[in-house]
């Protein structure tokens, strides 16, 4: 129960942080259409960083919601899907704003692919795309590691459960063996008592016979 409560609290913390990041991201996206040239490119880069942060928080929420009890997870899942939809919409909006090259590069933009300025523009776009790809790959790697860790955790719990059953079975076997030993000891004690009693009876009979023989002999020689 403590783990599930901690999971709920951590999910709520990520959710609150994501709302703040989303508000900041939406504000930056709203400002981009009013800008051109270098200010626009700077605004796009800032929006990209905010989007990366929002995506990372969303991935953390995806991991933490697995620790929330299934009885309350349906509401959590609905909120999570809403966040996913909002983030996807922000990605599409940022992509559209980034694809407006005329506004992005201002008066320097030209359709001639052979100019130095156009080559620079292409390199800048490719660099931004590479950064997004690297960020996406890091997030995928983080998700993969989290899934592997979860699988290892489930395997460890299964092993511990099996070991617990084996220990309980061994304990029952030991208790049963102790019962057998106690019964054996009681049986041996009973046999020892019977042997001692038989020995006393035998000695008594022999003593009586000896006394009788002595008495008979004594009576003959009187």
Description:
The protein is an all-alpha fold and 222 residues long. Helix content is 89%, strand content 0%. The chain is built from five helices and no strands. The relative contact order is 0.07.
**Percent of residues in beta strands:** under 5%
Order of helices and strands, N to C? HHHHH
Radius of gyration: 44 Å
Average pLDDT works out at: 83
What gap, in angstroms, lies between the N and C termini?
Answer: 103 Å
* Beta-strand segment tally: 0
Structural class, from secondary structure content?
Answer: mainly alpha
- Largest β-sheet summary: none
Shape, please? rod-shaped
User: Which segments are poorly predicted (pLDDT under 50) over 5 or more consecutive residues?
Assistant: none
**How many helices?**
5
Helix share bin:
over 70%
Quick tags:
single chain; 222 residues; mainly alpha
List the helices and strands and how they pair.
Layout: H1 2-31, H2 37-64, H3 70-99, H4 101-105, H5 116-220
Helix pairs in contact: 1-2, 1-3, 2-3, 2-5
Task: Provide a concise account of the structure shown.
This protein has helices spanning 2-31, 37-64, 70-99, 101-105, 116-220. The chain has 222 residues and is an all-alpha fold. It is rod-shaped and about 155 Å long.
